[in-house]
Design a protein that fits this description.
Layout: E1 2-3, H1 4-20, H2 26-33, H3 38-50, E2 54-56, E3 64-66, E4 83-84, E5 95-105, E6 110-111, E7 119-123, E8 132-138, E9 152-156, E10 166-171, E11 175-184, E12 187-191, E13 200-203, E14 207-217
Parallel strand pairs: 5-8
Antiparallel strand pairs: 1-4, 2-3, 5-7, 6-11, 8-9, 9-14, 10-11, 10-14, 11-12, 12-13
Domain LexA repressor DNA-binding: 2-63
Domain Peptidase S24/S26A/S26B/S26C: 99-213
InterPro entries: LexA, LexA-like, LexA/Signal_pep-like_sf, LexA_DNA-bd_dom, LexA_repressor, Peptidase_S24_LexA, Peptidase_S24_S26A/B/C, WH-like_DNA-bd_sf
């Protein structure tokens, strides 16, 4: 069973992971929960870990994994108002197959994507309507955005993106890279999320957006 605050935080973390592909920062969680200090967030996360709803991967920045979500139940006389029942059945959501286009460098650009016969199974509830594909990340230039070497990023195919979104960018019809996009006049800045790498500035006419980040799959061995 979860308290209301634990339940609210778990849903916020799950929503953030599905929307951005990485877990929220402690400041973002503190703001979402309306708490004044990070110590309250630490206690809530520890409680979620103890109850098996959340897994924290230590030695990795912003690495939280939602194991499963609770089943909302109506309160009764036997349950306090601040408690939510948990569903421990761990039923697996239906899977969706999306094409896996191989590797994309999160550090240096690589050659453009080619067609593939390889597919990746992802939970259906991980995406909404639209066309999606997956790429395997190589390199560490997006590590501070929670994207690590070996991760599979789920990309929603689109030619549009807003400033600050992480996109797959095709440069000069020959290079593909995964970076955060910033428009600056007639140029586009492709920003890494690692201070060891430099931002790349590209004239807008030389760049085509191939999609934007919709989610992330990580396997632990």
């Amino acid at each position: 069973m979860l308290t209301r605050k634990q339940h609210k935080l778990l849903l916020f973390i799950d929503s953030h992971l599905k929307q951005t592909g990485f877990s929220p920062s402690f400041d973002e969680m503190k703001e979402a929960m309306g708490l004044r200090s990070k110590s309250g967030i630490h206690r809530l996360i520890s409680g979620l870990e103890e109850r098996g709803f959340l897994r924290r991967h230590h030695h990795r920045a912003r690495a939280l994994e939602v194991i499963h979500l609770p089943e909302m139940m109506p309160t009764s006389e036997t349950l306090p108002n601040n408690v939510v029942r948990g569903d421990f059945s761990r039923q697996q959501p239906a899977a969706l197959k999306i094409p896996l286009y191989g590797r994309i460098a999160a550090g240096l650009p690589i050659e453009a994507m080619a067609e593939t016969d390889t597919f990746l199974d992802i939970p259906k509830d991980m995406v909404t309507s639209g066309d999606y594909y997956a790429l395997e990340v190589t390199g560490d230039s997006m590590i501070e955005a929670g994207i690590l070497d070996g991760d599979h990023v789920i990309i929603r195919r689109t030619e549009d993106a807003e400033n600050g979104q992480i996109v797959v960018a095709l440069i000069d019809n020959s290079e593909v890279t995964l970076k955060r996009l910033r428009r600056k006049g007639n140029t586009i800045a492709l920003e890494p999320a690692n201070p060891r790498y430099e931002t790349r500035i590209v004239p807008a006419e030389r760049l085509h957006i191939q999609g934007r980040l919709a989610g992330l799959i990580r396997r632990y061995h």
